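Handout, section 4.2: multi-component inputs.
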Amino acid sequence: MTDAILQQPWFLWLTLIPLGAAILAFVLPRQAHLVGFATALILPFCALLAVRQGTLPHQLFLNAGGWDAPLGIALRNDGLALVMLAVTAGVGFIISCYATAYFSARRHKPDRPHYFWPLWLFLWGGCNALFISGDLFNLYVTLELVTLASVALIALEGGNKALNAALRYLFIGLIGSLAYLLGVAILYGTYATVDLGLLGDALTNTRLNHVAMALMVSGLILKSALFPMHFWLPQAHAMAPAPVSALLSALIVKTTFIVLLRLWFMVFPALDLVVTGQILGLLGSGAIIWGSLMALRQERLKLLIAYSTVAQIGYLFLVFPLARGDAAAAAWTGCVLLILAHACGKAAMFLVAGTIHHTAGHDRISQLAGAGGPVGVLVVVFALAAVTIIGLPPSGGFFAKWLLLSAALATGQWFYLLVILGGSLLSAAYIVRVLSWAFLDVKRSHYPVIPWVMKWPPLLLAVISLLFGLIAHQPLQLALIDAPVAGRVMLEISHAR
Amino acid sequence: MRGDLLLLAIVASSLLPGLIIFSLPEPMIRLRTTLNLAGALLKVILVVLLFLHLLAGRTAEFRLTLLPEMDLLLRADALSLLFLSLSAVLWLVTTIYAIGYLEGAPHRSRFFGFFSLCVCATTGVALAGDLVTFVLFYELLTLSTYPLVVHRGTPVALRAGRIYLAYTLSGGVVLFAATVWLRAIAGPLDFIPGGILSILPPTLHPTLTLIFLLLMLSLGVKAALVPLHSWLPTAMVAPAPVSALLHAVAVVKAGAFGIVRVVQDIYGTGLCTVLGVLSPLALVAALTVIYGSVRALNQDDLKRRLAFSTVSQVSYIVLGIALAQPLALIGGLVHLVHQGLMKITLFFCAGNLAETLEIHKITAMDGVGRRLPATMTAFTIAALGMIGLPPLVGFVSKWYLGLGGLAGGQSWVILLLLSSSLLNACYFLPVIHRAWFRPAAAPWPTSPFASGRETTWALLMPPLVTATLVVLLGVLAESSGSPLHWVKWILSREYGL
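Output:
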């Protein structure tokens, strides 16, 4: 029995179940929330099984239809795919719980959940498919699935601003996809395969390959909102309903980055990456500084969180200059840990912002005063989640920054050391700005009541993200299975200098 | 009992009550008080058990893997026990005091929740077995004290909170960078008496000196070394129990304790002497001793005067370490305890003045001794102890510091101690004079209590207990069980001095 269960390709079910459920939810709009919630309940178990399976010695690939690459479609469930599947399942489940309450609390727009659930399930399936895709073309298709579903979700709120943001996001996504596809075409034209592993072995240091690399990288950074191509992100994330903002910021921006991460470490190593890596690192540094400074200036909570996402994306891109030589494993692991930590923390922040918006009727930071009330408590929850964004212990963000810092030190790139630390201080500044309003003592006569489903999921996520550093060992061990980097994670600089 | 469980129980004895208290509604006073006191009492008992455990020659150690090759390490040695028992005893006293002080004040659940977390972090700082764990809890201390500093919620308190965070977080970032760097150079950073860095090749000495500077810069923020002390007088706006805890046990002591650990257990006195970093540290400490006292002279706000006195007194500890003499080290370590007892008494008394008669200024203290005789007696004892009058505890610390200075051939220390004592007398004696010998400007409001007791028992007992300890531990300094005896035991056991 256990064997039969473990024989199932659970990582594949993680893709198929949400896609099927999406169709079901679309056909049965009145039961959409039931279908959605049931799926959200099942998926974490599938993810657990997939993880359990992934830790057994086994074959890491599954060829759809039984055809080997390059003819067939290769699916990978390596460590990176597994942790991403797991974190998406976990965070997705909590956001789904929140979404059921969120949409039922807003009765004046009764048809929203009818659209939300099919789209979200579709998006979920798309993300999961992206994580397990093992070839360039599948990655392209799944990226498109993710983009289209997110555009529709951004437009869900309706109104001019939301539609504008959604359209802008759509155009950016399309341009990015086209650039990426062009790069894929060049590689396919040369090597007649799109399989990541085969391409990685075959690629040589030619000029054409560099053009392909440049095209794919620029397409992907456009889609993952790296500074200065971030202009579409704050509006898109701030306009959407709270659960959607949480999904987009916590999970969806990471999907494009995962593609880039896979390409960089699996397909491109043969190319000359130093200059590109430095450019990406500089843009990432720009994102950290600019995003944090913009976050400091925002008057609305959701915009502040969105700009904080811009800054955090910048941290992810530091992996490209830092993953050099011995430091590759440390930088890569730090980057993955940051993805996981940020997913929990940012989702919690957006959910809290949604609850604050729902409770107070607005999300103006300057009017959050009044610590005694439920809003004050919510801001404290917000601050708990933000601990990981600042990078203070015992959150995952702290250890992620530890690894990135040690990589910066080991490769002697002092500039990034200053950027990482400076970014921490800036993020502390914008978080404290919100927090200090919560402690300002203002007497209020009327305290609104918050439904418990809108309180507990954010708190749960905030606590997870706060304590994530203490349990980070297991997910990292998992992520390092079949990782494209080798070497020690905990760096030691050799003394022979 | 198993050693690791004992350590966990000690940390949990303040963590769990804190977490439960957060979730308690404001009116559940009795349950909250019970939890607070039970936690504090349990902690004292557990510390005694741990003491017996170590006396029996057994070890206590707890490990939790955080990252590959990096552990959270709690370990009890004699030095951690010193700090631990200080915090356990003073927490118990302060909890009683805080319950009395905040009677009827708003947001008590929040206050006591963070209060417990703060003590939990202090416990962690005491029990940390390596530098990484130390940093973890050190930063947690920053996070958990901020809400206490801004507790009153006034614009002044919020400003103080911002300044506090600006200093401590900047210090934290520097500490973080220095720890990552040191970890990358030297491997695991366990606290081992005599230091772990002396095996490194001399080519690394310039780097080690730089890291030492960074560590002192960051730890010096919390230890309030000049010029990093400005946050401390500003943080005075916090409620009296918080100031008492901040100044006597938690924050400044964590900084001083960190300096002890780094100098003694990471670098080792031998390597420090080779690097030549101790003389500058002694100079900074001496400067701080004088500067704090001079600034205390012209403060009219009682708590501000006490704050500058803290700046001055905590540097005795640093001075004792920096002199690199066994006798001076005894003086420094024993002052860790002695200064805590005296300063907490003074802050309790200042709190009583503010709470009972709304006296904040020293100029308003004329004749207050007749209205609050017990409080002012405690105040007088502690102040005389600060001046260094034999046979009070302050004298014991100064005696050993002076002996150490002489033994090291550094007679300027005697001069420093004398001038500091003179300055202490200059800023404490006028206060005592006003309180006892000047007529009151207007008759004091009569006591609302039966039998004319000056204030509530909860406010009266804590300063009396600590003042008694100030006398007793001074008189009985040479008998077994006194802090002095204990420190000598630590030095012979851990450092073989």
